Amino acid sequence: MPSTPLFVLVAGEASGDTLGAGLIRALKTVHPDAEFVGIGGPKMIAAGLHSRHPLERLAVMGLVEPLKRLPELLRIRRDIVALCRRQRPAAFIGIDAPDFNLGIEKRVKRCGIKTVHYVSPSVWAWRQGRIKGIKRSVDLMLTLLPFEQAFYQQHEMASLFVGHPLATQIYPETTASARQRLSLHGAPLIALLPGSRSGEVAAMAPLYLQVAEQIVQQLPGARFVIPAANSARWQQLQQLMAERPELPVTLLQGEAAAAMSAADVVLLTSGTTALEAMLLERPMVVSYKLGKWSYRLLRHFIKTPFVALPNLLAGRMLVPELLQDAATVEALSGALLELLQPPLHGEMVSQLQQLREQLALPSDARAAAAIAALIDEPAV
Predict the structure, then answer these.
(1) Tens of pLDDT along 292-317?
(2) Has domain 6-163+361-376 been given CATH number 3.40.50.2000?
């Protein structure tokens, strides 16, 4: 390996830009003269990356938009592959964005270039057959969750659990300070997080508001807070709340973390929010509803016993999951009322603290050390 190693890194969205910036800084402590080129956003560029294309050109979602942009995406991919073949980097590092990066990794590994993928695809959860292609494309998988590493070990693939960066970025705030800052009063206080997408809010928010009505009937002093993910969701939620003017709900613009910290318990739609609530050590109930036919189609591909990340980490039903037909007003309100009771509430807070500690590792340094060890290995 040359004394001045070159690393090619490609991130596909803002979260990858944050991960990539931390990784670049950590790699510099191992190889101070290293050079970095590829695709990244402002954080990676500030850390020392020469970005050949704007990160925003890769940040496409849905089904139609990627098809519209396919010629451009293929052109960018060819450029990165050609760069690797020409410059022979010490390693190619794909950060998340598996649909884009795994294709590059497959091509450059064939050329004898070592490949790293940072953030595991959810292959452990569904479409597990993808592991065959991943093994052919990736020399080292860096995972954010411990059970992901166990999955790759079962398939005899090199991997390392490096910890989750959010666990060292999101810290619990005291309930009192969060309530004071948001001017929230009353107890118990329950946070309702119906989702960040329009379809999620349309499906889940009416149900959550019905749950609030049910709880108020049993606990007249109960209060609720809903943090809207953005201005569009704020307007959508405001319209739904207008149908229930007597319901004691405070609608916030953003402030999801503060709203959860202020709350005694949280009712949330499954997804990244469950991880955030866990890191904030807030007792929670997790729910989700798909369309009937979508659920029937997808359930055959899902291979995990749980959907909520705290349960996946704990290996048991730590937080209630009420999905599909089980997500009724009676079941959800009953689960929240039970969580408000001191014995169960305190026990869950303690368990969530332990899960948080499990993820709070120096992920940048661990990832950089693993990559340094990989590039020092002789080529096979």
Answers:
(1) 545 555 555 556 678 899 999 999 99
(2) yes
